[in-house]
Amino acid sequence: MKVLYMKPDTTLYFKEEPKPVPAGGQVLIRMAYASICNFDIMMWKGTAAYPPDGRIGHEGSGVVEAVGSEVISFQPGDLVTILPSYGCGLCEDCRSKREEYCSNIHANTGLMTEYVLCDQRSVFLLPPGLGLREGCLTEPLMMAMEAVRKANLSDGANVVLMGCGAMGQIILKLVRRHPVGKLMVIEPDAEKRETALRFGADFALNPDSGNIVSEALLLSNGRGYDAVLEISGSQASAKQALHLAARGGSVVFFALYGMNFELNVNLFSLYWKDITITAVGVPSGVFPRALRIAPSLRLFEVITGMFPFDQAVDAFEAKARGGHAKVMLAFPGAAEGR
Fold this sequence. Notes:
- This protein is α/β, with parallel strands linked by helices.
- It has two domains: 2-125 and 298-330, Quinone Oxidoreductase, Chain A, domain 1, CATH 3.90.180.10; 141-279, 3-Layer(aba) Sandwich (Rossmann fold), CATH 3.40.50.
- The protein contains eleven helices and 17 strands.
- The strands form four sheets. Strands 3, 4, 5, 8, 9, 16 and 17 form a seven-stranded mixed sheet that branches.
- Strand 10 (159-162), helix 5 (166-175) and strand 11 (183-186) form a beta-alpha-beta unit.
- Helix 4 crosses helix 10 (287-293).
- The longest helix has 14 residues, at 138-151.
- The radius of gyration is 20 Å and the shape is globular.
- The relative contact order is 0.16.
């Protein structure tokens, strides 16, 4: 089987390896799709930690090929998606129902491979109405749901999303399900601004067109926004986020900004505004709920690039150029639309 690896110098290359054989509670999955996350791009650019084993990819879907002797919930031919990480179940945090903070986390972070061996605890059946392409996006949807939860949206809240790439678009779809007030998007790419308006944003502003903070505040009558979600990963945008928040509002830093970026905060302004600042880590217990709502979200709309697996390097280059929302890899035998 063909596996995509990253060298310590971040060069991507393919390696042929034997197809694994499942045993016990393991499930062997023939991958259908894997999508490229911005974190993958950051590793490739050297701005995030190198994966210890050189294998990459944590968003994927596929078809069960074979199962171990202790597996009873899956059988060959099942369409599935993969939870990228799960807790050990034994540490203090896991036993305190805080699995997301597990100190012995199990990770499935090598999904850019033709076949992958997973513990059955990390494998989930796709529900009716959810095909393999969209099922690949269950993990991004899970993260988007956590971001919206942390925004603590109230009825009539004015919301601003800073960035409208793949994650911004999924978050936008979720926010639009809430009875919010004005929904603003700030995004430099013209095509993505058009997408934001099509997905339900009331306004879509270009941050490069002038003083974006003043322009956005003017559209809120000077009050600011009850929820500010920074999704772009731009350090300049991160610095602007606190200035857009209304008194009593929340600022959610969803994106990643590199390992060494530090944000200066005026604590007196924070006191005066009484702002809640939070970030988004990988949650636990959300993946099943994401699968329940995914069929109704038309997630295929955020996919703007599809590359054969053997063109993975081209796919990374296309994603890194910034014009795409979600870029996906299609493996041999992947069935479009399934």
